[in-house]
Write a structure and sequence with these properties.
Number of strands: 12
Bound molecules: 3-isopropylmalic acid, manganese (II) ion
CATH class of the largest domain: Alpha Beta
CATH architecture of the largest domain: 3-Layer(aba) Sandwich
Number of domains: 2
Structural class: alpha/beta
Shape: globular
CATH superfamily of the largest domain: Isopropylmalate Dehydrogenase
Oligomer: single chain
Number of helices: 12
Order of helices and strands: EHEHHEHEEEEHHEHEHEHEEHHH
Length: about 350
């Protein structure tokens, strides 16, 4: 029996998560697995009413669950930063979800903005370090509001944080190499900016080299500067299989990754604590202008649900959901909100039916 905490959140978050729940319920039922959802109302609306983002006691409550299923956080009436820091980043940090796993996979019939690229060309995974770097908030501001204002925000990394992320990446790469020759032919990539970030970049690079040489001697290994990586994502996405990178660079390159796999409507992510409580989300944001119209694409949320089952150890359910998604995507006109040729609930119904 899996107990799942659901945070629908803001904008279209609750709508897409509902479709994901529908699919998870259908697939779990078929496979004789019990799953139970409990809703939490954290998000912009609650903040506007109560001034509360997420409380310590709520986080304690969440620890009684097997996973968190998140819709989206972000409200047009709330100043940028409050909900992001107060809910999303707070959960990632407090629950030590140090891996942000973001697959970039182009499905058949999904339009790729890069001419001539096919599903076999766009099939990789970005492992974004999820608890460190610039996101830690070290730094500050002096003389605020004056012409002499100084602001700093530091990129912070310690060896242990780097090592545990690299370990996850190497292990995933090893798994994928065993899965298919196609993956095994490609190297693992570290992405950073070590020509400029000569402290943090150097720490990541040395740790990468050391772990690679010590434990993964036979694995092909490569490194790319982050600016070059964005170029190669577009020019030669087929070069990539597993990419490991620090937090901010990972944030940026996974938006690009989302686009080359067909957009935010199909991009899922997992905030993973390999020894604890993980959280799964569509990475597209709250899209407030589409709220309540039944036109937003729920595929990303459904795929986040599939990833949740995979991480919980229910590989068969995860695979069945992904396969059903692939089939339904073939019937959709587009991956963009309002242009799918069907409604949000239609998409969910169709995937759920194939999973039943
Ligand atoms: C993401 C988002 C978040 C991030 C924001 C909303 C804080 O962009 O999940 O990629 O920067 O990590
Ligand atoms: Mn982002």
């Amino acid at each position: 029996m899996y107990k799942i905490a659901v945070i629908g959140g803001d904008g279209t978050g609750p709508e897409v998560v509902n479709e994901g729940k529908k699919v998870l319920e259908a697939s779990c039922k078929k496979n004789g697995v019990k799953i139970e959802f409990t809703n939490f109302d954290f998000g912009g609306e609650r903040y506007l009413k109560t001034g509360e983002t997420i409380t310590e006691s709520a986080i304690e409550d969440l620890k009684n669950f097997d996973a968190i299923y998140l819709g989206a956080i972000g409200h047009p009436d709330v100043k940028p930063g409050i909900l992001e820091q107060g809910i999303l980043l707070k959960l990632r940090f407090t629950l030590d979800q140090y891996i942000n796993l973001r697959p970039v996979k182009l499905f058949e019939n999904v339009e790729c903005p890069i001419v001539d690229k096919k599903p076999e060309d766009v099939d990789f995974v970005v492992i974004r370090e999820n608890t460190g770097g610039i996101y830690t908030g070290h730094g500050g501001v002096t003389k605020k509001g004056t012409q002499d204002e100084i602001a700093s925000q530091l990129m912070i990394y310690d060896r242990k944080t780097v090592d545990r992320c690299l370990k996850y990446a190497f292990e995933l790469k090893q798994k994928r190499n065993k899965l298919s020759q196609k993956y095994a032919e490609k190297p693992i990539h570290l992405v950073h900016k070590r020509n400029v970030l000569t402290h943090c970049g150097d720490l990541w690079f040395r740790a990468y080299e050391e772990m690679g040489n010590a434990q993964y001697k036979d694995m092909k290994r490569d490194y790319q500067h982050v600016d070059a990586a964005t170029m190669w994502f577009v020019k030669n996405p087929e070069w990539f299989d597993v990419i490991v990178t620090e937090n901010l660079f990972g944030d940026i390159i996974t938006d690009l990754g989302a686009m080359i796999q067909g957009g935010m409507g199909v991009s899922a992510g997992g905030n993973i604590n390999p020894n604890g409580l993980s959280m799964f989300e569509p990475i597209g944001g709250s899209a407030p202008k589409y709220k309540g119209q039944n036109i937003i694409n729920p595929i990303a949320a459904i795929l986040a649900g599939s990833m949740m089952m995979e991480v919980l150890g229910e590989t068969k359910i995860a695979e069945e959901i992904e396969k059903s998604v692939r089939d339904v995507v073939k019937q959709m006109k587009s991956m963009s909100a309002g242009k799918m040729g069907m409604s949000t609930t239609d998409v969910g119904d169709k995937v759920a039916k194939l999973c039943s």
